[in-house]
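Example record

The entry below shows one chain as it appears in the dataset: sequence first, then structure tokens.
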Amino acid sequence: MASTKSPSPLNDASKAPAEGYGTILEPGVVRLERVLPGPIERVWSYLTDPDLLGKWLARGQMELRAGGKVELHFHHAELTRHVESIPEKYRDIEQHCDIVGRVVRCEPPRLLSYTWGEPSGTDSEVTFELTRQGGSVLMLVTHRRLGDRNEMVSVASGWHTHLGILIDVLSQVEPRAFWSTQTRLEAAYEERFPK
């Protein structure tokens, strides 16, 4: 259960250091890196356990084997106690947003990869790689097969926001506001990513 402490300035997305931003590895591929409180098994559980996954990303189920089904049900307003208006751009997902995909690779507790948005025909792929670093865990999040620059900006800012909430949850502090953080980060990525 998260405490009511506010996020530390180091975890505040509005003050994130430059190295905290995602990078473009090549056209259509965005990567973010985070150092998370360990142990690695705990971080793995936040990627795979439906209840824990729902605290920072989305509720849903995942068959943890190659070819297994992935169903994620996003309810962004439930990730934080902050009450905010949803930006006009995202009003169509105000009540919920569902993502369906298939597990590509599952190697507990270090690698999980699955497709994102299969039925819609926008089947990009997200990969989480975990590496022990003493008592911490290095997480690499790589999202591939993104359609264009606009999608890369949206995906990078979305992952940046969700990973910030994951850090808050793992650190047992009050999760930051979702929509104001995401909006601020989307504007920052709009300026950072080349046109």
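Notes for this example: The mean pLDDT is 87. The radius of gyration is 16 Å.
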